[in-house]
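[audit] Reproducing an earlier prediction to check determinism. Same input, same settings, fresh worker. If the tokens differ from the archived copy the diff job will pick it up downstream; this log only records the rerun itself.
[audit] input (358 residues):
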Amino acid sequence: MATLRYLPLAQVPQWLDGLAKSYTVFAPAREGSAVVYRPRAEGSMPELTARPTESAKHVVFPRAHELFSFTYKADPAVVGKRDLTLTQPQDPTPTVVFGALSCDARGFFAFDPVYDGCGTKGLAKDVYYLKRRQNTALVVLACRTALATCFCNWTGGSPASREGADVLATLVNDGLVMEALTPKGEELVSGLAEAGAEQGAAAEASHTAAEATMAPVPGAPLDPKAIADAVLARFDDATFWQAESAGCLACGACTYLCPTCYCFNITDESNGISGVRLRSWDTCMASLFTLEASGHNPRTAKANRLKNRVGHKFSYYPSLHGGRFSCCGCGRCIKSCPSSVDIRRIVQNALAAANVKE
């Protein structure tokens, strides 16, 4: 087991200032009523008590990311001919996300196989994502209590999951117990003092107490295959999806706040003879998401779009990636939905419908 380190809360700003000499540091900060991950201002204390409204995925997968810039220049030797020059952006700098949640860290596991060529399947790798992923270290802050919308235990997680984290930080009394889990993490905390036995025990007690605040998994033990099969069995059940989507506004808040949604659009934004090609977040809940060049749109109905979103997370994605859900159970889609659509209820209703049929 790695040596536990201890960081007094009063020294957190100083420690992060030190990291900022070698890394770009993101940390949770209050903006109005929201808590968001932002590049940290020198000397500032991160928000460590309120749950971040958004996930940290934009640090690795930016909302709008320049793939390259382009410039046209007239060729003086040939009338009407223009030469095109493409310029790649600079490689990302080493980055630390301090105060990420365990669900945020686990969320990147939905991205990894897709953007890494699906492992051994030999598909193209996305170098833009992979460079950022490899250059980012995650200091995960263990949750002290679960919200009513949290269901990470449905998807194999916990309030203090170490999966995907480089450092697990646990708030105890007036400091943070820091557990390095990877070589990246060891490098980050190597200068901190060792934690005492009482501090280590307090951290474990905090993890146990947080786990006890989670709502039990319905029908435990959870059977991922049964869920995948039940959701897929409702594929042609238009009545089911119309009922489940009745309250949905198709605003897309669920997808933009989700740590595991990875869809994007690509556009060329030009100004005269120069411009940039951007990759920007997109949402499958938008009516134009599946509009084809022919003018045909297979998902004009809101019910079909919700079916695709839920089906992808709990059936299609698991069938391609070893049974793992494309959902980390963070509950942000539930908490921030303006009409209280609850993805847990949809899954439970699909299971109930499958049981009735049997």
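[audit] rerun output stored. Observation attached for the diff report: The longest helix spans residues 302-320.
[audit] end
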